[in-house]
Specification:
5 strands, Nucleotidyltransferase, domain 5, alpha/beta, 47% helix, nuclease
């Protein structure tokens, strides 16, 4: 990969299936490096599955040397135990990336869908179909968790390259004004 290429690792956390997708960004060109899932045995101890997530994250980071990791935030469900387990899986993925010195960003499912399709309520198939258009690929993965992870990576790329991202936050305005002093009226 060229020196000016940024690699983004996207993660769709799960305790049974964890999706991951890696993209390479060179200028305005975005291409897929890898997209797949880690399938975890539901009959195995939860802590064993967390260890496998940690191991998979370490392997992906060592192999691809991503500049950043984008992870989908868990949505709120009715089953508290499932939410707790999902939060642990997400925490392991985040901690592993941070331990390796990789910056982490988190996006809500609605934000990811909005970023990819323009509709925060899009379904998994709509996200996958739009990713095919954006990234120019034709394959259909066995698990849409893989394309969800890819969508998180692409969402992160879009957010990093959006000059208005974060403007609603005070520090976002401050950063924007520092980067664009010509926009400040002295009158």
């Amino acid at each position: 990969m060229a020196n000016n290429t940024k690699i983004i690792l996207g993660i769709d956390p799960g305790t049974i299936i964890m999706g991951y997708g890696l993209i390479a960004v060179t200028g305005q060109k975005v291409q897929i490096i890898e997209m797949n899932v880690l399938k975890l045995n539901p009959k195995k101890d939860h802590y064993e599955r967390l260890q496998k997530i940690h191991h998979c994250m370490n392997e992906l980071i060592q192999k691809h040397q991503p500049h950043s990791c984008a992870i989908e935030a868990p949505f709120f469900g009715k089953n508290v135990q499932s939410m707790l387990k999902l939060g642990r899986a997400q925490g392991v993925a985040i901690a592993t990336a941070m331990q390796a010195g990789v910056q982490v960003a988190e996006y809500s499912p609605k934000k990811v869908k909005q970023s990819i399709t323009g509709n925060g309520n899009a379904n998994k198939e709509q996200v996958w179909q739009m990713l095919q258009r954006i990234l120019l690929f034709s394959e259909q993965p066995e698990y849409l968790d893989a394309t969800d992870a890819l969508a998180v990576a692409v969402c992160h790329h879009f957010q990093e390259n959006n000059p208005l991202a974060g403007i609603g936050k005070a520090k976002g305005w401050d950063k924007f004004l520092q980067q664009h002093p010509e926009r400040v009226s002295k009158g």
